[in-house]
Design a protein that fits this description.
The complex is a heterodimer of chains A (113) and B (113). Chain A has 113 residues and is an all-beta fold. Chain A is built from no helices and 11 strands. Classes of the chains: A mainly beta (113), B mainly beta (113).
């Protein structure tokens, strides 16, 4: 059982480039989410999804797009990378977002130059 | 969403010492989760507390949920180097179809051998 798989592990972009961070889970979880983690700022929610075809914004959605075409996959797209998006990104999933365990991937460290 | 305050922000102690970290809010928690995050990894759930006054134990870790459900604490007895990591509390906000798990900024614990 792989759990939550994120790729790539590390990425360096130039300002203005686009890229997609991949996230896949094999636990048949309906709820998936993306967080960014910055020093001294904790984990901040970017976007989340309560099921295939349904997405919503979190605390810091600007500059990011998401889609949820299948239960398993929840990619995060940066359309035009900016240095302010340098961060560590975590994908997470759970069967239920209320009172149930959130399973995290191991993260993607992104640097935008 | 509500603001979660964690204290202290940093804590460095010697192996064998006891410690307590705190998570507070101005609003009432519906439930609270504690996670531990090790360097280069995603957070891992330690415990969920739901009932005011609840106490849960996980080996040398004791979790308390305040009677008014506005605060929680994590006490570690006889800390070991393996306890080193970032301790995060998290609260689920749900309403009008929105489900957001909000994290505090964390307490970074270093246990020195």
């Amino acid at each position: 059982n792989a759990g939550v798989t994120q790729t790539p592990k590390f990425q360096v972009l130039k300002t203005g480039q686009s890229m997609t961070l991949q996230c896949a889970q094999d636990m048949n979880h309906e709820y998936m989410s993306w967080y960014r983690q910055d020093p001294g700022m904790g984990l901040r929610l970017i976007h989340y999804s309560v099921g295939a075809g349904i997405t919503d914004q979190g605390e810091v959605p600007n500059g990011y797009n998401v889609s949820r075409s299948t239960t398993e996959d929840f990619p995060l797209r940066l359309l035009s990378a900016a240095p302010s998006q340098t961060s560590v990104y975590f994908c997470a999933s759970t069967r239920s977002p209320t009172n149930e365990k959130l399973f995290f991937g191991s993260g993607t460290q992104l640097s935008v130059l | 969403t509500q603001l979660l305050e964690q204290s202290p922000q940093f804590l460095s102690i010697q192996e064998g010492e006891n410690l307590t970290v705190y998570c507070n809010s101005s609003s009432v928690f519906s439930s609270l989760q504690w996670y531990r995050q090790e360097p280069g990894e995603g957070p891992v759930l330690l415990v969920t507390v739901v009932t005011g006054g609840e106490v849960k134990k996980l080996k040398r870790l004791t979790f308390q949920f305040g009677d008014a459900r506005k605060d929680s604490s994590l006490h570690i007895t006889a800390a070991q180097p393996g306890d080193t990591g970032l301790y995060l509390c998290a609260e689920t906000y749900s309403g009008a179809g929105s489900y957001q798990l909000t994290f505090g900024k964390g307490t970074k614990l270093s246990v020195i051998p």
